[in-house]
Design a protein that fits this description.
globular, eight-stranded mixed sheet, 20% strand, 260 residues
């Protein structure tokens, strides 16, 4: 199979903002190298497109694809407050309104609550061709938070005290009690290929979430458990070779020219 649009030029970077239907300003970065396929990266809670880990992911994938990164509301340079997946679907839909007409193939990799938001959007939006779902909660009301299993050095220490880990972090939280769609009720509506990735030592969202989502997924699917792996973006930090290899192979296999 021939992969869509291998990069042959030095990427250019375009930054800007998009406006959602509920009038939030969504900040983005668009890395363009002339590919006909794009990978959209959706971060998790307390992160943003400027996080060093995600910039490294963009660089790793940018050899074969254009890359589009954005900040969910209440994060990074986007406006508003974070509503814990209640309204953030509008952010991803604004991204798809902008980016989908520009490419023949669209992949999406989303982390944690970003993955939850993505499942709820993709249940009814068919503009994405392939999806990588990392550490997704199956139900926001059932997030685990096993605080006794927290890796204080690798998680809290990295996020709050490490100069690299602190880049691009922060959130403006809003009310948690707003109504939310449950990804476990929507995953069966998604027919595109979906790969689930979860760390076995994830203390925030335990691996059973991805297993439950995988069981209900209706289309082509795969599930990867990274032994001793932590939560979400930290899987890329701690196991970069394994993580990037799995993601690259998945997108190669599912964004190929002869794949619908």
């Amino acid at each position: 199979m021939e992969i869509m649009g291998l990069a042959t030029t030095i990427p250019s970077v375009v930054s800007g903002t998009l406006t959602t239907v509920d009038h939030q300003k969504i900040s983005f970065q668009h890395f363009k190298n002339g590919s006909r396929a794009v990978i959209i990266i959706a971060h998790g809670y307390y992160s943003s497109k400027q996080a060093v880990i995600l910039q490294q992911l963009a660089q790793a994938l940018g050899g074969e694809y254009d890359i589009f990164m954005f900040d969910l509301r209440g994060h990074g340079k986007s406006s508003g407050i974070f509503t814990w997946t209640s309204r953030e679907g509008n952010d991803l839909r604004a991204v798809l309104d902008f980016i989908a007409p520009q490419y023949s193939k669209k992949g999406l990799i989303a982390f944690s609550v970003g993955a939850s938001i993505s499942i709820n959007v993709l249940a009814n939006d068919k503009r994405v061709n392939s999806f990588v779902c990392v550490s997704a909660p199956s139900n926001m009301w059932k997030i685990d938070y096993w605080i006794w299993a927290l890796d204080w050095k690798g998680d809290a220490g990295y996020t709050f005290f490490n100069p690299i880990g602190r880049i691009g972090t922060g959130v403006r939280p809003g009310p948690f009690w707003l109504a939310k769609e449950k990804p476990i009720n929507n995953i069966g509506k998604i027919t595109i290929p979906v790969m689930f990735i979860h760390g076995s030592r994830d203390w925030v969202i335990r691996p059973w979430h991805s297993r439950a989502l995988y069981q209900k997924a209706a289309g082509p699917k795969k599930i990867i458990s990274i032994k001793n792996g932590p939560h979400a973006e930290y899987l890329m930090r701690d196991y970069p070779e394994q993580f990037i290899a799995e993601v690259k192979k998945w997108f190669f296999d599912t964004l190929a020219k002869d794949n619908p």
